[in-house]
Amino acid sequence: MIHIAITAGGTEETIDGVRKITNMSSGSLSWFCLEAVLSYIEKHKIEAYTIHYIKASRAVTNELNAEQASHINFIEVTNTQSVYNAVETLMNEVDVDIFIHAMAISDFSYAYSVAKSDLAEEIYQHIAANKKISKKDIEAIITNPKSKHSADAKISSSQEIVMGFETTPKVISLIKKIKHNTFLVGFKLVKHNKDNHMIKQAEKLRLANNCDAVFANKASQLSVKGHAGVLLYKGEPVAHPIGKKEIAEAIVNLAFQKIN
Amino acid sequence: MIHIAITAGGTEETIDGVRKITNMSSGSLSWFCLEAVLSYIEKHKIEAYTIHYIKASRAVTNELNAEQASHINFIEVTNTQSVYNAVETLMNEVDVDIFIHAMAISDFSYAYSVAKSDLAEEIYQHIAANKKISKKDIEAIITNPKSKHSADAKISSSQEIVMGFETTPKVISLIKKIKHNTFLVGFKLVKHNKDNHMIKQAEKLRLANNCDAVFANKASQLSVKGHAGVLLYKGEPVAHPIGKKEIAEAIVNLAFQKIN
Fold first, then answer.
1. For residue A80, which of B228, B157, B105 has the smallest C-alpha distance?
2. pLDDT of the residue at A221
3. Going by DSSP bridges, is the β-strand pair A236-239/A230-233 parallel, antiparallel, or unpaired?
4. pLDDT value at A224 more than 90
5. What pLDDT, on the 0 to 100 scale, is given for residue A76?
6. What pLDDT does residue B221 have?
7. What dihedral angle (degrees, nearest 10) is formed by the CA atoms of B148, B152, B155, B161?
C-alpha cells in the first residue's frame, strides 16, 4: 500500500468574529500534484494506494471519477493549528511514503489588539512608576498588554490599533521527525530573488526540516501557465519546469523515482 | 430613471504579497436584496432602472436572466479604499435613489509589521537617550517604528511580531454628504446584545452617517434561514424579519415605500 499526502490552499487565522488573516493560495498547484500522482499511478498500474489530501476549504478541487475518488481521503483544515493536528495524526497513523507540503501556512496566529494610544499610555505609566525599566519589561508589555481589547469584543473602529501575534508551530518540521523515511517535498516562495536568495532560502528550509526535495519560486512568477521555479533534490537543481502542470509532474516523478 | 446601489461581500486588506486581512461576509444578504429589488420592480412594472452592484470578488452571485442582467452595473472592489473610490464616483455621477450598504468593510488598513523585540529595543533606546519621554513620543514610535520590516519584504516567520494599522476612510459617511435625499440603509453587526447594546449601536451608526434605515443584528444570528434582527426606520423598530430573504424584502419594501 502506497500512501501519498498532499497539503493544499492557504490557512486562515481568526482575528475576531468578523475578521481573519488569510494566506493567499488557490491550491491549484496541489491539485495538479494530485492529478500527476493519479496519472503516474494509472500508468504504472499501482492498485493499492491512498492519497491523503489535506485542504483549506477554499482550495480548488476538480472532477474525479468514482474509482479515483475512492482512493482519496479528504481532510479539511482551517488554521495552522488544525493543519498541525491533522498532519500529526496522519503521520502517526499511516506510513506516508511521499509528502508534498504545498500549503501556504500562516507563521502567526492572532494574540490581541490594542489601541495605539492605550499601549503608549501603558508603557508610559510603567516607566513613570519604575525608576529602572529594561528592554525586557517593554517587550513583556508588547507581548501581552493589560490595555488590550477584551477577547470576546468586536474590535472598535474608532481608534488606530496594533495587533500582536504569536508564532505558530512549524508543521513541516513534524513530518520527518515522526517518520524519517517519508519522501518530503517542501516549497519555498520568496518575494525577490536578489543574489541567489531563493536557492539559499530553499536550502535553509531543507536543512531545518530535513526535506528531500524543495520547489523554490518567486511570488512574481505565480501563474498557471507561466509559473516557473527550480526543483532541488538534496540541494541540487534537478529541473526547471514552467507551468503548474509541468511543475507537479516534475515533483511527482522525482518522488516516485526516489522511493522505488 | 430609478438608481439603486447595493454593496456586497467583505473587503480584503493586503498585508504583504502572501497575506491579507479579510472581512468575512458571503454577500448573500446583498444578493437577496438585489433579488428583492428585481421582484419589486417586476411587480410594479418599473422599466427605467439601474442597479449598481458594488461587490468584492468573493461575494456570491446567482443566475439572472438577460433582461435583468442588462439593468445591473457590476462594480468590482477589493480593499476599503477601492470601495470608497467606487462609491464616491458613483454618487457624483448618478442620482442614487436607494443605497443599501450591506458590505463588511475593514475599519483598518495594514501599515507595518515589526518584531516585538525590535520594537521594545527601539522604545528602550529612546528612553535611554532622552531624559524625559512622553506618552506622545511612545505613541509616535508605535505609529511608525524605525525598526519596522521593509515594505517590500515578505514578513519573516522566525520572530514574534506586532502589526500596526491605520484607520480607513468611512465609506458610509460619504453617501448622504454627496446626495442628501438618497434613501440610505446601513447595517450594524454586533457581537453581543447586552443591555440593548445593539439598538444603541444602530442609533450611533444612524446619527453619525445620516442613515434613513438601519438593519441591526448579532453575529450569533447570522445564518440563511434563521438570520434574525431588527429593521429600524429613523431609529424606530419597524420590522423583525427572520431569514435573509425576508430581511431583504423588508428592507427593499421600506425603501421603495419611503422614496415614493
1. B157
2. 66
3. antiparallel
4. no
5. 98
6. 67
7. 20
Strands A19-23 and A12-16: antiparallel
Is B87 within 8 Å of B21 (Cβ atoms)?
no
Find cell 538534496 and name the residue: A234
CA angle B185, B191, B194 (to 5 degrees): 100
Give ipTM to 2 decimals.
0.84
- Taking a C-beta distance cutoff of 8 angstroms, is the pair B211, B184 a contact? yes
Q: Among A102, A199, A194, A113, which Cα is nearest to B162's?
A: A113
Q: Residue B210 — left, alpha, or beta (φ > 0 → left; ψ -120 to 50 → alpha)?
A: left
- Cβ distance A32 to A18 under 8 Å? no
Please judge whether B23 and A23 are an interchain contact, meaning their C-beta atoms are less than 8 angstroms apart: no
The model's confidence at residue B26, banded by pLDDT at 50, 70 and 90, is very high
Backbone angles phi, psi at B188, to 5 degrees: -125, 115
CA dist list (Å): A108 to A163, A241, B56, B107: 11, 31, 25, 21
Residue in A closest to B218 by C-alpha: A17
* Positions of E strands within chain A: 2-8, 12-16, 19-23, 49-56, 72-77, 98-101, 108-115, 161-167, 183-190, 213-218, 230-233, 236-239
Give the type of residue at B53.
Y
How many angstroms separate the CA atoms of B193 and B219, rounded?
A: 10
Which positions in chain A touch B166 (Cβ < 8 Å)? Answer: 160
Task: Report in angstroms the alpha-carbon separations of A88 from A177, B177, B246.
Answer: 10, 56, 45
Cell numbers at residue A156, please?
472598535
Cα–Cα dist A250/A108, whole Å: 31
Across the interface, do B139 and A159 touch by the CB < 8 Å criterion?
no
Task: Please indicate if any CB of chain B lies within 8 Å of the CB of A205.
Answer: no
**Cell numbers describing residue B72:** 445591473
Q: Does A109 touch chain B (CB under 8 A)?
A: no
Residue type, B25: S
Number of helices (H) and strands (E), helices first, in chain A?
8, 12
| List of domains in chain A | 2-107+169-259 (3.40.50.10300), 112-167 (no CATH)
User: Strand, helix or coil at A5?
Assistant: strand
Query: How far is it, in rounded angstroms, from Cα A121 to Cα A148?
Result: 12
Q: How confident is the model at residue A191 (pLDDT cuts 50, 70, 90)?
A: confident
Minimum CA–CA partner of B155 in chain A: A107
d(CA B18, CA A73): 28
Residue A247 reports pLDDT greater than 90: yes
Q: Which residue has the cell 457624483?
A: B92
The overall longest dimension of chain B from CA atoms, in Å, is 76
Distance from CA of B16 to the nearest CA of A (A): 9
How far apart are alpha carbons B14 and A62 in whole angstroms? 28
Instruction: Give the helix/strand (H/E) hosting B73.
Output: strand B72-77
